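I have been asked to look over a protein record a colleague put together. Alongside the sequence sits a line of tokens, each denoting a local backbone shape. Please read both lines and tell me whether the tokens look consistent with the sequence. Take the sequence as given and treat only the tokens as open to question. I have pasted the whole thing underneath without changing anything:
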Amino acid sequence: MNWPRIIVDGLAMSLLFNAVVGVGFLLWPQAYSTMFPKEIKDAAAPYVDRRDVRKMYLLLYPLYLLIFIWWGVSAGLAGVKGFWPLFWTGYVEMTMVSISDFLILDCWLPGKVRHMIKGAESCKAWERKEWLKTLAIPEHALGWTLLVCPIAALIVAGVGSLF
């Protein structure tokens, strides 16, 4: 495995991921409420425009695809060979994205953007402890670690094997 390349790619994609998600949130804040805890989602539901939700997903899904392809191509071009080295390269890089998402989008940002979600400004779910308990920790400790990172690693290993 090429650790300097893994760290650089992980940091670059963490920056890209958080920047794109942040810009998307600024463009369509109500649409992002569909990914928040149930209390916020329910309070914001009357104000959510389905077209904005579609635009949000059209922004996020190509981003995920770009990240996976970039990592696979980058690892392949860096000389990482074999399924397991490619797999672990993708897993570590996606873990870096998960950590940056947790720190920036789940720990720092929610308290600063609660006023942007119409109808949910006063929800208890915005409180840091509640947010971490109901969304951030389960999502990153379980969801990303056991599902998202391994799937990303499989994609990276597949794409990287082609190079």
Observations:
- The chain has a mean pLDDT of 90.
- Residues 79 and 85 are 10 Å apart (CA to CA).
